[in-house]
Amino acid sequence: MGSFAILIVTSGVIVNLTPSVIYKAVNATKNNVAGRSPAESEVYGLKLIQMLLPREGHRIWFLDAAAARYHRKFPLVNENITSALGVVGAVGLLSLIWVAFLLMSGRQVDECLAFLAIVTVFLFFFATIGGFSSLFAFMVSSKIRAWNRISVFIGFASISAIFLILQNSLDRFFSGVKAGKIMLPISVGLGLIGFFDQTAQTSAANRNYIRAEFENDSEFVKRIEAMVPENSAIYQLPYIPFPEEPSLYALPEYGLSAGFLHSKSLRWSYGGMKGREGDTFFRALSLKPIKKQLEVVSNLGFAGIYIDRRGFSDNGASTEKQLADVLKSGPQLVSTTGALSFFRIPHSGVHTGIQLRPN
Fold first, then answer.
1. Do residues 132 and 222 share a domain?
2. Domain check: are 173 and 52 in the same one?
3. Is 26 part of any domain?
4. Could you count the other beta carbons within 10 Å of the beta carbon of residue 79?
5. Would 229 be classed as within a structural domain?
6. pTM score, two decimals?
């Protein structure tokens, strides 16, 4: 059974990675795409304290304050804040550390707990800041950097340890059937504690905000689709490289992908891979005056210009004014939130068939 499980997992990994391997073999690899520095293995490394601290935004105010105080005052705080295991996971982790000490002292312990303890200690020493992950990045490869994400596996082992300890304790004092009846409400109780501990009151508000923004983007893109012919190309401003580009003013990372996400019949200038021909073309074009950009994209058959105002220091006012001066008209569409605008380029509106990739 174990060999079969390994075969299934390995096959899944191979199937998942095969398209990427084939793509890289055909198109070659660009060094400026998702570049990784060995130092990043420590920037995004695992911290023991972050696994034991409560999550930020905790329902209990003083636990939330404790987490926020650490994140505010200590360095190398980033996505690793999500490695908090919660009270159940934290107790399980400390239990596994205790089991590891018992093993080192030669004490007899449950085989399953011993296995979980050994795996957990190994994973921690590998992923922690300055651990074996740093050695791996320094001497072998820096392509893996966010070692804090190994906390998912440590969390699984820690929670498993809690239930193993409970199960062994109940089996020691009660018969099998009675132990099972007692274990059920305890398991439900721990699940409820974990849910309360690992979810935040702000989650509902965030979800409502994200839903509203999603629906606004969808409605705006549908209005563009109704205005231009099918298969039209849309030029997007500001220019932002893809992928892994920091936020630009109030425009979040990957914010320009909203057009592609919500559209069924349009093509978009954003999203060309860094360093490839399309990206090089649009990056060079973005350095030209707005009037020249408009001339080029119009000649290429673009049907309109999509502006995300959040990506400009002046909320896009200067860019829109220059476009309005040339086109003799303001934006034909503005989103409900006022964050997006769209200028229709006045030509025949029929796709020219010109490829967006330069020769």
1. no
2. yes
3. no
4. 11
5. yes
6. 0.77
CA 344 to chain centre: 33
For helices 111-127 and 86-104, give the axis angle rounded to 10 degrees: 100
Structure tokens at 169: 């304790």
On whether both 136 and 153 belong to a single domain, the answer is yes
73, 142 contact by CB (below 8 A):
no
**How far apart, in whole angstroms, are the C-alpha atoms of residue 18 and residue 20?**
5
Q: In this structure, are 280 and 176 located in the same domain?
A: no
The amino acid at 5: A
Centre a 10 Å sphere on the Cβ of residue 222 and count the other Cβ atoms it contains. 13
Is 20 domain-assigned?
no
End-to-end CA distance of the chain: 55
Residues 38 and 140 in one domain: yes
> If we measure between CA atoms, which residue out of 302, 285, 308, 300 comes closest to residue 221?
308
Chain centroid to Cα 176, Å, comes to: 44
Q: Which of 53, 37, 43 is nearest to 75 (CA)?
A: 43
Cα dist from 303 to 157, 229, 232, 241, 296, whole Å = 55, 8, 6, 22, 12
Nearest to 120, CA basis, from 94, 81, 138:
94
DSSP 271-326: TPBTTSHHHHHHHHHHTS-HHHHHHHHHHTTEEEEEEEGGGSTTTTHHHHHHHHHH
Same domain, 183 and 225: no
Could you give the number of structural domains in the chain? Answer: 2
Helix (H) or strand (E) holding 334: strand 333-334
Total count of residues recorded for the chain? 359
CA angle 283, 284, 289 (to 5 degrees): 110
pLDDT tens per residue, range 108-130? 999 999 999 999 999 999 999 99
Q: What is the pLDDT of residues 75-110, one digit of tens each?
A: 999 999 999 999 999 999 999 999 999 999 999 999
Cβ–Cβ contacts within 10 Å for residue 98, how many? 14
Instruction: Say how far residue 100 (Cα) sits from the centre of its chain.
Output: 34
Mutual angle of helices 86-104 and 176-198, in 10-degree steps: 120
Where among 148, 165, 200 does a domain terminate? Answer: 200
